[in-house]
Amino acid sequence: MAHSKQYQHRTIVSFFSILIVFILMTGGVRAGIEPPKVICRVETDRAILPAGDSQNVVLKITLDAPPSPAHIKRPLVNLALVLDQSGSMNGTKIQQAKAAAIEALTRLGLQDIFSVVVYDTNVHTIVPAQRARNIQSIINTIQQIRAGGSTALFGGVSQGASEIRKNLESDYVHRIVLLSDGLANVGPRMPEDLGRLGAALIKENISVTTVGVGTDYNEDLMARLAQKSDGNTYFVESGFDLPRIFAAELGDVLNVVAKKVKVIITLPDSVKAVNIIGREGRIRENQVELYMNQLYGDQEKYALVEVNIPKSTSGSRIKIAQADVTYENPFSRKPEKSTGISYARFSSDPGKVAGSTNIEVIREYQLNLNALAQEKAIELSDKGKKKEAVRELKQSAARLKQIGSQYNDKELLKEADEMEVQSDTIKSQGMSPKSRKLLRTESYQKKNQQLSQ
């Protein structure tokens, strides 16, 4: 009898051991798997700085977003398409815009939210915010879109935001995609007006991606709206490219791995922030604040900050900066934090200083300076100063070529060649609407680290 009870006891223990292992190997392990986190790195343009007087140094604060985890369901999307149906969209443009809208719809899941707003002289919601289930009915509605009238762009974006707000309290990735081929001529129409709208929307965690078609839309307005709301921006010369662009944009929206991203860079009292390069942010005494609405899987976002380092002695080492990144993990729905710290050593040996060069930081710094040069060239051209605009681009190209040759960097040399071509074109033909749009779009995409399409 005792032997039988002992056997039963061992059998029960073995059963529960196997059960525990089974739970851990299936649901238990999956429930316990933490989604990968964003990695923060803080680097300088040189790891070893020349000893002596105070100097300015470039910091690169990099956020390495992890791949979207395959074993966890992606965040749901709340997408509003705001489509221009004014008279200038007639023909191929409106047909391809409808095809692009249908492309976006078919890429969504059944639990995602989808809406469509169209605008001409007036604004109409033709597909109120709803789950992307009744696909054929929605497609039939989209196919009924017809072009005609003026361009109430501001009203269209505002109405798109209203559709997004119907599900704002839910845990979605919120995105408006605006398409236009013409100048806003009904309601608010200045870049500053749309910039203020974008700044208001980002406070609600709504980003606006802008798609400009042809050469008649206002690229300043579109870029400002995207910039202030942390969205993407595209220049599409032909309506035939719209389905591809919409597909690329949905690739980002469906691949969000971090939301409500805030970066606080804290500097020691002896280190002073001089300038934020390329991105918008705030400098408050010994802190620099930056905000990015979302990060996409397996992509890199960064900020460049120029700081002033105090006088130093050879052999010394100081802490330059600490970057604290906070964000919401859309998979676990929990707040996360990542930290990066940068130190610098000082030397009187020029060889050691030169050997510590970080070409990646130098490259991104120079490319961002080039983006600023592109914007300066636009400004000069708008004032009728074509020669000065050409000179700005030529000087930027020369700087890129010199540094690219110094470090044998193919990307800088390629960018230098492209700038020379652009400057020669503007010199011979002036800044055409197409050239202006290319410069504005390329400048924005570089500063925002938007993958070009």
How is this structure best described in words?
The strands form three sheets. Strands 2-16-15-10-13-12 form a six-stranded mixed sheet. Strands 6-5-4-7-8-9 form a six-stranded mixed sheet, sandwiched between helices. Strands 1-3-14-11 form a four-stranded antiparallel sheet, with helices on one face. Strand 12 and strand 13 (about 285-295) form a beta hairpin. The protein is α/β, with parallel strands linked by helices. The protein has helices spanning about 1-30, 90-105, 135-145, 155-165, 190-200, 220-230, 240-255, 350-355, 360-380, 385-405, 410-430, 435-445, and strands at about 40-45, 50, 55-65, 75-85, 115-120, 125-130, 170-180, 205-215, 235, 255-265, 270-275, 280-285, 285-295, 300-310, 315-330, 335-345. It folds into three domains: about 35-70 and about 255-355, Immunoglobulin-like; about 75-255, von Willebrand factor, type A domain (Rossmann fold), CATH 3.40.50; about 360-445. The model is unreliable at about 1-30 (pLDDT under 50).
